[in-house]
Amino acid sequence: MDAGVPPDALGRRVSCGTDYGTVRYVGSVSSIAGIWLGVEWDDPQRGKHDGSYEGTQYFKCRHPKGGSFIRPNKANFGVDFLTAVKDRYGLNDTQDVQYGTGDTVVFGTKTVEFVGMDSVAEQQRQVQLNKLVDISVRECAVSHAGQEEEVSRTCANMRHINLSKNLISSWETVIAIASQVHNLETLNVSENKMRFPSTSTFTSHAFSNLKILALNQTEITWTEVLLCAQGWPVLEELYLSSNNITVLERPDNVLQTLKLLDLSDNQLLDGNQLHLIAQLPRLEQLILRNTGISSIHFPDVGFGCKTKMFPSLKRLAINDNKISQWSSINELDKLPSLRALQCNNNPFMDTEKNPETLIQLIIAKISQLEVLNNCEILPAERRGAELDYRKIFGKAWLEAGGHWNPEKNKPSEEFLAAHPRYPALCLKYGAPEEGELKGRQPLTLKNQLLTLTIKCPENPEQKPVEKKLPESMTIQKVKGLLYRLFKIPGSELKLSYESSKLEGKEVELDNDLKPLQFYSIESGDCVLVRW
């Protein structure tokens, strides 16, 4: 073997300039003298062929142009973990100590007292390394752990390590590093294309305190995740984006402490795959961005009931997917703990041209939602959305057999499947009556006028006044009108209204810039004026 080629070179990760690849062949090539490395590059644009030369196949590549041959001296096989730490933080043997003037030594960026001993540099280096808690050696060509126990001797306080985009070839290397960091809580080994165990192996205690683990872009499969997870007894956050995960399996006796799972940018074959991870008892956040799912369904219960799946799930991200039917949004109301949803860039959102109406529909369909696409849902916004939903689909409800009289109220199964929350909205706000649901007339000014009763509760001598006001009139302009009507300063007015359908409930009109229709005021309602 060539002196510049490690004995375990085959399968190792290497870098050449800014390019990364995996060694697939070590040896001679045709009649050309010397040893060559056959490398499959991560970026196929870096390659020249599929691993063959002059008709002989030396190695195989996934991409027909993904491979090339390079001389060993062009390949960087990397350094051990501790060397990378010292290099990154200016603590290695060649650059750590410069003698200052008088009785001082300049160490890294710090000046320390010189005590006249030859071992001062090494002692101070140990002190500095032991102070490191949060370490990043991203893109530092780390390929192996180094001498056993050397890391634990010199970096005793490490808790958080970023090992992303290095030259780590196998999960065993990660274990060898982590086993020397006794209180490791956070580990990022993303962007390392590694080999993972294919069968159940001895469970290391290297990750006994690990809470957060990132394995993005490592080519790990879900089966391999479950095998490795036997060694993650207290893991709370697991990031697995951009891998080879297409099929899920039920995690029996592993990942039971998990609170966050990120599966984004993995092409799951079927939305029903989610049922296999639905029993994770503590899972609070699930990120499924760009996973190719087209539907969501919880078949264990009917509408109006809460599923036993995902019992703790509070935050769900399903943006950038292929969900085309509103029925999947209806299904999300079955989740007992759901509070926040991200669902942008799905085909179902193209069915409604008005973005405000789209948001109202989602809010009305999911009863416990508090945050939608990173925007908080205010109580007034929810009330308006639910009242509008009740009104918009009221005619369809009547035509499907709905009735304000409970004894005659028998909406069809088809209507309830499309609008499962409608009965609950009728209970909350009262069933719509035929009079308020007459077909939409052309939007003339007459049809946009609201007939409102205006009262001054604090002035019993002032008789109620009936006024016809455009629903597009802002609260500020209503105050100006009332100022002229009652001869009182408009800026000091406090307005609210009582709905004719919700007796005893009073809603403040607290935003001067909003129109009357924002508050879902209807003809027959009563505006209350105070000052």
UniProtKB/TrEMBL annotation:
Start and end residues of each CAP-Gly domain: 27-71
Coiled coil: none
Biological processes per GO annotation: cytoskeleton organization
Ubiquitin-like domain span: 450-529
Broad class of the protein's primary localization: cytoplasm
Annotated keywords: Acetylation, Chaperone, Cytoplasm, Cytoskeleton, Leucine-rich repeat, Phosphoprotein, Repeat
InterPro entries reported in the protein's UniProt record: CAP-Gly_dom_sf (IPR036859), CAP-Gly_domain (IPR000938), Leu-rich_rpt (IPR001611), LRR_dom_sf (IPR032675), Ubiquitin-like_dom (IPR000626), Ubiquitin-like_domsf (IPR029071), Ubl_TBCE (IPR044079)
Family matches, as Gene3D superfamilies: CAP Gly-rich-like domain, Phosphatidylinositol 3-kinase Catalytic Subunit, Chain A, domain 1, Ribonuclease Inhibitor
Quaternary structure note: Supercomplex made of cofactors A to E. Cofactors A and D function by capturing and stabilizing tubulin in a quasi-native conformation. Cofactor E binds to the cofactor D-tubulin complex; interaction with cofactor C then causes the release of tubulin polypeptides that are committed to the native state. Cofactors B and E can form a heterodimer which binds to alpha-tubulin and enhances their ability to dissociate tubulin heterodimers. Interacts with TBCD.
Role noted for this protein: Tubulin-folding protein; involved in the second step of the tubulin folding pathway and in the regulation of tubulin heterodimer dissociation. Required for correct organization of microtubule cytoskeleton and mitotic splindle, and maintenance of the neuronal microtubule network.
Protein name: Tubulin-specific chaperone E
